[in-house]
From TrEMBL:
Residues 1-31 form the signal peptide. Belongs to the TonB-dependent receptor family. This is TonB-dependent receptor. Keywords: Cell outer membrane, Ion transport, Iron, Iron transport, Membrane, Receptor, Signal, TonB box, Transmembrane, Transmembrane beta strand, Transport.
Length: 756
């Protein structure tokens, strides 16, 4: 839904709707909090220094490590369940590429070479690869979700906001834990950590996480189940303190997801206006009915990923009020993926579509930052460098249609930026904040596409071998010939220069009430589309930078003797050259369009009496996406629609009760859930890719020992076995099918944790 007269309601909405549109900052209560009946202080590093979250002029959702455990959130893609305003999903349901949207700001292109406008950071280091962004979450101190442009301090692609994963750090005291979980579909998960002092000045911590489960996607044709899970993770940390003015931290991470069966989606017939009710089999096998997560597929698809990263953070105190910080990081991610595979004649069945891809991407980043303060002034300034170098291959096969296209692409990104932010206390209760970042982004791109039999060349001749002249149509300029006859290769480079800004005012009305408001600009560089089907026009290969102008007004408050907390925010976003994702044939394209968004969020936390904890959140979003091309030559556009991954309404809640026994042990019962309104998964506003509204419920029962050394719990997730969409595709233009991805079914589990 879009406002009828958007220009007339911008200021009215921003100033007048704060009481009705709200921002959520949940967190499950600790045993101490439930006993004291007061809301604990949450410390965050949203401005690259430690602060009480209630003192930061940013809409933030902070989830503690304990809250993540009790909510069963062990992957970044699951965060949307307890962060209103955040939509997190994966296009194949198996973590192939992670997609995040904050307040409607997203780019749901699943191309591995693309970067999203919602940045993901792990311990201060940017993760550019969408293949690695859906990180496994284990042994974390907390997760911070910052809403709104964060371009000044974080810079890289934080147009819509960012997600920070912050690990538990090494400790001087020897400590650790072991956690075992068993569950539905033969789930077996092991998590653990060991921390302590190695010498007087050197601390260490090692953390591990291993997760295995059978698949819940049924393939009657092969008898193998898809969406299975196998993930092995390790993190090693060292903290060296050579003096009381210097700290040097090393972090090494390793993730291995061996090749797993990952059937991508259910396919259903479609007219282009709506999905059919009956499930359609691409291979002419019997109809499976309307059962979700079930599809006859000629051969099993798969997914395998491996990633490693290393970072060195050095912090040096200069004088009494200044710190210099250096963060150096290197990472690599490799991925292999295949979906809906089966070649002509394979066991007598013919596949209509096969896609196989590989990724090998390296990154290096370096940040140098100075933080300093005086009585009334706090500032930080620095420089940032990023290098991303990736090789990508895509093998797309249409045995029943046009044949096969092989793509080898590479992209090198080099980015420099200079940034600074200043906070000045005008009075004891009023603070002004200004900041800016200048960014230059250089990309070198090459795309080599070849076609193979039974592809048809321009004369209609069926080709028996790879043919290098089938690749790129020219622009739609009538003065140009229809086809450019060049050897299947496209090379280009681009240089984008962008500026981001922020200007805010903080008013500390009382010790427990903060009012803030201001303006921020976010920006994301332009880029390239991979010509994945051999029939991509030259004009479609590039897209321009996008800019987002954002206005926000918010209130953070505590009252009722710190037993209640209410945070409210309202915002208005105006996009220029919004990078919209569309699907042309089977080629995923990003093109520039126009967009607006406005809305708000609320967080309410209550601890009314000993043993009780409640939190509830609501996010309201009204967006409009326009000027999206409906034809390959741009002569027609789709009607205005909601932006993708932008439900008009989302909500989530937690209710928890704890009882303490005479032996000192305690029993907790927790019920939590979330609601997501209907939403679009593509800018091709045909109705085929619209996900229905859904509600999910979860429940957990846990017992804690008197000294908190061990705990045991049982849980059920998706209590009502709700069928809901995680993603959807529009394949109507070449196959008459709509493809749907459904979320996991009801899931039972039991967990035991021992701390020492």
């Amino acid at each position: 839904m879009a406002f009828k007269n958007r220009k007339d309601v911008k200021i009215a909405m921003l100033l007048g709707s704060s009481s009705a549109m709200l921002a959520f900052q949940p967190g499950s209560a600790s045993a101490q909090q439930l006993t004291s009946g007061q809301i604990e202080e949450v410390v965050v590093t949203a401005q690259k220094r430690e602060e009480n979250v209630q003192d930061v002029p940013i809409a933030i959702t902070a989830l503690s490590g304990q809250a993540l455990d009790e909510l069963g959130l062990d992957n970044a893609e699951q965060l949307g369940a307890q962060v209103p305003g955040l939509v997190a999903t994966s296009f194949s349901g198996g973590g192939t590429v992670s997609l995040f949207s904050i307040r409607g700001v997203s780019q749901n292109d699943f191309g591995d070479h693309q970067e999203g406008p919602v940045a993901v950071y792990a311990d201060g280091v940017y993760i550019p690869s969408t293949s690695a962004a859906g990180a496994t979450m284990y042994d974390l101190a907390r997760v911070e979700v910052l809403k709104g442009p964060q371009g000044t301090l974080f810079g890289r692609n934080a147009t819509g906001g960012l997600i920070q994963l912050i690990s538990n750090k090494p400790t001087e005291v020897t400590e650790g834990y072991v956690d075992l979980t068993v569950g539905s579909y033969n789930q077996f998960t092991v998590e653990g950590a060991l921390s302590g002092a190695l010498t007087d000045t050197l601390l260490g911590r090692i953390s591990v996480f291993s997760d295995n489960a059978d698949g819940y996607f049924k393939n009657p044709l092969t008898g193998n189940d898809g969406r299975e899970r196998e993930s092995h993770n390790a993190r090693v940390q060292l903290r060296w303190m050579p003096s009381d003015r210097a700290t040097i931290d090393f972090v090494g991470r390793y993730t291995d997801n061996p090749r797993q069966i990952q059937h991508a989606y259910d396919a259903r017939p479609s007219t282009g206006a709506a999905r059919g009710d009956a499930e359609f089999d691409w291979f002419g096998n019997p109809d499976q009915g309307s059962e979700p997560n079930k599809q006859s597929i000629a051969a099993d698809g798969y997914l395998g990923k491996r990633a490693d990263s290393y970072e060195l953070t050095a912090a040096f105190d200069v004088g009494e009020t200044a710190t210099i910080t250096s963060i150096s990081a290197y990472g690599n991610v490799q991925k292999e993926y295949r979906e809906v595979d089966g070649s002509a004649g394979w066991e007598g069945r013919i596949s209509q579509y096969t896609l196989s891809s590989t990724v090998d991407q390296d990154q290096f980043s370096q940040e140098l930052r100075l933080n300093a303060s005086t009585d009334k002034l706090r500032f930080q300034t620095g420089v940032y460098y990023l290098l991303i170098d990736g090789d990508f291959s895509i093998d797309t096969d249409f045995p029943a249609f046009a044949g096969r296209a092989l793509v080898d692409a590479s992209q090198k990104t080099e980015s420099w930026s200079v940034f600074g932010q200043l906070e000045y206390d005008i009075t004891s209760s009023l603070t002004a904040i200004v900041g800016a970042r200048w960014v230059t982004d250089e990309k070198e791109y090459s795309n080599d596409t070849r076609c193979a039999a039974p592809s048809i060349n321009l004369t209609g001749e069926v080709l028996g071998e790879f043919y290098d002249d089938c690749v790129l149509y020219s622009s739609f300029d009538p003065a140009d010939p229809l086809i450019v006859d060049f050897p299947g290769a496209f090379k280009d480079d681009r240089d984008d220069t962008m500026d981001t800004y922020t200007a805010k005012l903080n008013y500390q009305m009382t010790e427990d009430v903060l009012i803030y408001g201001g303006y921020s600009r976010g920006a994301k560089a332009g880029g390239y589309n991979i010509a994945g089907d051999g029939f991509t026009y030259l004009d479609e290969l590039t897209f321009d930078p996008e800019e987002l102008d954002a206005w926000e007004l918010g209130v953070k408050s505590k009252f009722w003797d710190s037993k209640a907390q209410l945070n409210v925010a309202a915002f208005y976003y105006d996009y220029s050259n919004y990078q919209a994702f569309t699907f042309a044939g089977v080629t995923n394209l990003v093109e520039n369009a126009q967009a607006e968004a406005q809305g708000g969020e609320i967080e309410l936390v209550l601890t009314p009496s000993d043993g009780w904890y409640f939190s509830a959140g609501l996010a309201f979003l009204d967006t409009e996406l326009s000027d999206v091309a409906a034809s390959r030559d741009g002569s027609a556009t789709y009607p205005s629609q909601d932006m993708v991954l932008s439900p008009n309404l989302s909500a989530n809640w937690i209710a928890k009760k704890a009882w303490t026994f005479g032996n000192g042990g305690s029993l907790d019962i927790q019920v939590d859930g979330n609601y997501v309104d209907e939403q679009e998964y593509s800018a091709n506003a045909t109705g085929v890719t619209q996900g229905d509204a859904y509600t999910l419920w979860n429940a957990r029962l846990a017992y804690y020992s008197s000294n908190d050394a061990w705990e045991a719990s049982v849980y059920v997730r998706n209590l009502t076995d709700e069928t809901y969409h995680a993603y959807a595709f529009d394949f109507v233009s070449f196959s008459g099918l709509a493809a749907e991805v459904f979320g996991p079914p009801r899931w039972y589990g039991a967990q035991v944790r021992y701390r020492f």
